[in-house]
Each structure stands twice: as structure tokens, then as C-alpha cells.
Amino acid sequence: MNPQTPLLELRAVHTHIGAYHILHGVDLAVPPGQITLLLGRNGAGKTTTLRTIMGLWQASRGSIHCAGQDITALATAQIARLGIAYVPENMGIFADLSVKENMLLAARQARRAAQIDAQRLQWIFGLFPALEKFWNHPAGKLSGGQKQMLAVGRAIVEPRALLLLDEPGKGLAPAIIDRMIEALVQLRSSGVAILLVEQNLHFAQRLGDSVAVMDNGRVVHAGSMAALAQDAALQRALLGLAL
């Protein structure tokens, strides 16, 4: 794919949830092999955007394309099979299952843990050593940071072209945030595109290549993360606070 061609593109996307009109014509482009930050105040429509991309909520107007394919009307399972993974804010961990069993559920090509791609699993253990340490422990017994690592590890247990993450830094200790940033940078280096919703602006500043800022269900600013990080006045205008 041409690096100038977006891997993911939303064109004038509207989403209704019941009687509520949440997204009002979202235009968004996610380049291949980059980390794109989606910022905005609470209630701006960021999570709805991710859920609409994944088909969990259907767009009522507009279109969503991934790698040139129109995915607007596809079911969530079909979208996942195209190499798109989603880690929601609540992480979606199966608390009563072990770390191993959580990972196995996501590895669609494997029926037993021994059938998970060993090289890929070792790479994930390198990113998140706690997953190997607690491999046979119930996922519900993990700390918040370890659960977040499991959620991301599960999302990448198979190769992905695009990873959607909803606030992976929320509530994490600084040392865990550093580990998460390191892992996401490695994922980007491996060619994975990442669309990341984040409220922790320092986390965002350290990671983002490009940024889109949402307000009232629309993208009101798009550009480089570096440019936004250097412009305190623009930050205040868009977000109500400065990095």
C-alpha cells in the first residue's frame, strides 16, 4: 500500500444510537504503519467512532473503508477477519479464565495453547513479561495494568493490520505506561497501524504520529501530533487545556 494512501478512512460518517445522533459527519484518515491519536473532551464521540468502525454500532450515513474495501455494512466478525482488532476501554477480559485461555480464545487458528504461533507468543511475552509469569493464573486476579497488557496481547496474538485502542493508559502507573508505550512503538515498527483514543496527553504526545481532535461528534482538527504538542494556544482552543 502507498504510504500516502490511508489504511482506514471514514467519510462523512453519522451514527445514531436509538434516538441520539452521536456522530455528525466524521472524516478521519489513518495512515498505514503509524499511530494516530484521537483526542477530545468527554462525550465528543471518540468511543462511538471506534465502535462504529468495528461494526458494533452501524453507521447511519457515510462510509468506512479499510485497505480500499468498503466495510461500512459488514458485521463485526467480518471486520475482525480483515485484520482489525479492538481493545475497548473496559478491556473485555474473561476474569474466570486463565491468561492462557484468554489468549487461546483470540488465536482463531489454534485449538490448544501449544498450537499458538510460538515465535509470536515469545514476542508478546517480550512486550509484556507479566503474561508469561501469570500464564496459568485467573485473569481476574491480575492488576489493572496487567489486565491491560493481556487485552493488548490478546488483540495481537494473530497478525493485525490495524489496532483500535480505547484509553489504554487509563489508571495505569507511570512504569506500566512506559511499558505500554514501548510495546505500541514496537507494534508500529512491525507495520501495524494504531488508532488510539487517549485522555492522558503526555502519553499521547510521546506516541502519536498524527492526531485528530473531535468535538460534538465531528473531527474539528487533524494534523501532526508534533505540531499540536508545540502549540499551547491550539491545545487550549481544542481541548480546554495544554500539554
UniProtKB/TrEMBL annotation:
CDD domains: ABC_TM1139_LivF_branched
Organism, as annotated: Verminephrobacter eiseniae (strain EF01-2)
The ABC transporter domain, residue ranges: 8-241
Family indicated by similarity: Belongs to the ABC transporter superfamily.
Keyword Manganese in record: no
Cross-referenced SMART domains: AAA (SM00382)
InterPro entries hit by this protein: AAA+_ATPase (IPR003593), ABC_transporter-like_ATP-bd (IPR003439), ABC_transporter-like_CS (IPR017871), BCAA_Transport_ATP-bd_LivF (IPR052156), P-loop_NTPase (IPR027417)
UniProt keyword Transport present: yes
Example of a GO biological process term: L-amino acid transport
UniProt keyword list: Amino-acid transport, ATP-binding, Cell membrane, Membrane, Nucleotide-binding, Transport
One MF term in the entry's GO annotations: ATP hydrolysis activity
Lineage per the UniProt record: Bacteria, Pseudomonadati, Pseudomonadota, Betaproteobacteria, Burkholderiales
Top-level taxon of origin: Bacteria
Protein name: ABC transporter related
Gene3D superfamilies in alphabetical order: P-loop containing nucleotide triphosphate hydrolases
